[in-house]
Write a structure and sequence with these properties.
The protein is an alpha+beta fold and 701 residues long. It is built from 15 helices and 33 strands. The relative contact order is 0.09. Residues 144-597 form the Glycosyl hydrolase family 13 catalytic domain.
């Protein structure tokens, strides 16, 4: 054998030996304030980057950013760990960095992907200049309300049966609050309104809610209101009706031109102004309680009832309204829409609909500067006095225009308009898939967190797809898939977006999480309503809530989830809140978990590290340099042991460590009675009951 080959063999053996000695599990850094400060730097600011190793375990650590390599220095040694630091200057472009660790002949790298022997720079940490999200939104507890189904505070504004026609049939007033929604229930109204929200603010405050997110509340003919009729006004059926009249549609008549009562209610400026005033009073009361409020903005499309289109001829001939684009070729709103036939007026039905739905006219921003500016003004109007809303949730935001380039420009302008009116407002988008291109600091603040929360949690705990349309045995209890999905998708949400991302178990578009715990594929159209609540597992529901309230982001409770509401996907997920029939125990569990989330700062700002996992088992830590939360999940239908290396959160391995259990949920219930456990040399041994969640806390002396 040649001498050079012998040397290479010896070197490889040495590297293998060193790999056994180098404690790669002790290597850690991330984008939290504990490892990078300031967390949201401006160009020209000095940024301190930190890195952790086992004490005396490496020869050197370098911070590598672009073509610059900074040797890091130890600034403190605590609990058997060395903490390194180096400084860089923030530029006006995205700063990318990773760490290079030297030990003897070994060089390894650390980035979002963790430790590797070969550098993968696409996993580099990133800092975005001028990217700041409102502090109030970081880790805030949100509560989503589908207004028509929450609480009827004012029966005088209820939609009447036969008040108007929509999608081929008349509107229906539902008098039985607990009735299951019909499969085609878009015309059913249960009477929930803003007065109902006002009446239940005490309940929401006692629950621990910090932010109320309302599904659309602007004038609209549907109960979901994603088909806006007038962006300038709150729907009087949610607000206040001060001018009314007779005039339901005659039997068999489907022409809304004849729907005098509806026309009066939704076009009379006295009703519209009174409804806006009521909304202003609601936001004032919410703010007086120290809470925030977010509105749903549906700007991709409007509704066929919209005053700009007026397909239903509701506004035709009225003195306060210009003719709609459907009605007249001379309408000032003609450019707001795309018409395929320019010779069909009056009453031109050839406009483009979103996904071909003629009830959802697609808005044509590219060809209408007037529409573009109008919607920017709407964005400003509702975050300004007297309404002072605290932000927007943007429906199907990436679909707004006909190209990505156009969409990016619109959202840049929308952000400027909204932030100039209210710098502390949040812009939160509905988005499926990788959102990185929209989260550069000049468009959206954050997103509804499907990829890095709802979907991985649902697959792991239930094996169900989020609509209950599919069950996958290969993902049920698959903690490796859970960890892989979280690591991949959390990387796309850098820290400012991650800490404000809306973490939901359920919402108005997907089945109720409690229903998913029965692991049954189904929709109400063929499975029936009862199937949604058969065989549900309340202990798994509590496991989901335990993860929700301890995971990075803004935990968002969909109204009624906390009370035990079940339901398959839309429309069954929009059942009414069960006032008087609530699951009191589940509400109490939510209260206690929300209190835990709010009482321990590391749950809003701390680092996250996976500590242990196997089939149906998972443990992760949330931690700072001196405080630690340990969350352990056993999703098996049997008791089992877990051996967890909690030292990875920075807890000492030199001495015994006493942790306090602050929550235990198990098959038959839960308790927050405090108990202590002892970790030996940084290792915690637990006996986990079936279907359980345990949460432990430790703070260094």
């Amino acid at each position: 054998m040649k001498r050079e080959n012998i040397d290479i063999t010896k070197k490889m053996q040495y590297i293998l030996n060193m790999r056994a000695v180098l404690n790669k599990d002790a290597l850690f850094s991330d984008g939290t304030e504990y490892y990078r400060s300031p967390a949201e730097p401006k160009p020209g600011e000095v940024v301190v980057i930190r890195f952790r190793t086992q004490r005396n375990n490496v020869d050197a650590v370098y911070l590598v950013s672009g073509d610059k390599k900074h040797k890091m220095k130890i600034y403190k040694t605590v609990n058997g760990f060395d903490y390194y630091a180096a400084k860089i200057i923030m530029t006006d472009e995205v700063v990318k960095y990773h760490f290079e660790i030297l030990y003897g002949w070994i060089t390894c790298y650390y980035n979002h992907h963790g430790v590797s022997m070969e550098l993968q720079d696409w996993f580099d940490f990133e800092i975005y200049p001028n990217y700041d999200t409102p502090d109030w939104a970081k880790g805030a507890v949100m509560y989503q309300i589908f207004v028509d189904r929450f609480y009827n505070g004012d029966p005088t504004n209820d939609v009447e049966t036969g008040e108007y026609s929509y999608i081929g049939d008349i509107s229906i007033r539902v008098d039985e609050w607990n009735k299951i929604p019909a499969v085609m229930g878009v015309r059913e109204f249960y009477g929930g309104d803003l007065k109902g929200v006002m009446d239940k603010l005490d309940y929401l405050q006692e629950l621990g809610v910090e932010v109320i997110y309302l599904n659309p509340v602007f004038v609209s003919p549907s109960n979901h209101k994603y088909d806006c009729q007038d962006y300038d006004y709150i729907d009087p059926h949610y607000g206040k009706i001060v001018e009314d009249c007779d005039g339901l549609l005659p039997h068999g008549d489907k022409e809304n031109f004849h729907a005098k009562k509806y026309v009066k209610r939704v076009t009379d400026l006295k009703n519209l102004e009174a409804s806006n005033q009521l909304f202003a009073a609601l936001t004032e009361e919410i703010h007086a309680r120290g809470m925030k409020i977010i509105l749903d903005g549906v700007f991709n499309h409007c509704g066929s009832f919209n005053k700009w289109m007026d397909r239903e001829r509701i506004y035709e001939g009225q003195p306060d309204y210009a003719p709609g684009a459907y009605v007249s070729a001379d309408s000032p709103y003609r450019s707001y829409f795309k018409f395929s036939d320019e010779n069909r007026w009056p009453y031109n039905p050839t406009y483009e609909g979103w996904w071909t739905h003629d009830t959802l006219p697609k808005l044509n921003y590219k060809d209408s500067p007037e529409l573009y500016e109008y919607v920017l003004e709407i964005g400003k109007k509702w975050v300004s006095p007297p309404y002072n809303v605290d932000g927007w949730r943007l429906d199907v935001a990436a679909d707004l225009g006909y190209s990505n380039e156009f969409n990016h420009q619109f959202w840049k302008d929308f952000r400027k308009a909204v932030k100039e009116a209210n710098p502390n407002a949040i812009i939160l988008a509905e988005h499926y898939g990788n959102p990185e291109g929209w989260l550069m600091g000049d468009e959206w603040d954050t997103v509804m967190n499907y990829d890095a929360f709802m979907e991985p949690v649902t697959w792991f705990l239930t094996g169900m797809e989020k609509h209950s349309d599919e069950y996958r045995e290969d993902l049920y209890g698959n903690s490796e898939a859970f960890i892989g999905a979280m690591r991949t998708h959390m990387r796309a949400l850098h820290m400012s977006a991650l800490t404000t991302a809306m973490n939901e178990l359920s919402n108005h578009d997907h089945s109720r999480f409690l229903t998913r715990t029965n692991r049954r594929v189904g929709r109400i159209s063929y499975a029936g309503a009862e199937a949604a609540s058969q065989g549900v597992n309340m202990a798994v529901m509590r496991e989901g809530v335990a993860i929700q309230m301890t995971w990075p982001g803004a935990p968002t409770v969909y109204y009624g989830d906390e009370a035990g509401v079940c339901g398959f996907t839309d429309p069954d997920n929009r059942r009414t809140y069960p006032w008087g029939h609530e699951d009191k125990s589940l509400i109490e569990f939510h209260k206690k978990m929300i209190a835990i989330h709010k009482n321990y700062r590391v749950l809003k700002t701390g680092s996250t590290e996976f500590l242990w996992n196997d089939y149906q088992g998972l443990c992760y830590g949330r931690f700072s340099h001196d405080e630690h939360i340990i969350v352990v999940i056993n999703n098996r239908d049997e008791e089992r042991e877990a051996v967890i290396e909690i030292w990875k959160t920075g807890i000492t391995r030199l001495d015994d460590t006493i942790l306090e259990r602050i929550m235990l949920s198990y098959r038959d219930g839960f308790t927050d009675a405090k108990e202590t456990v002892t970790a030996k040399a940084g290792v915690l041994r637990l006996i986990m009951p079936a279907y359980s969640a345990m949460i432990f806390h430790h703070k260094d002396e």
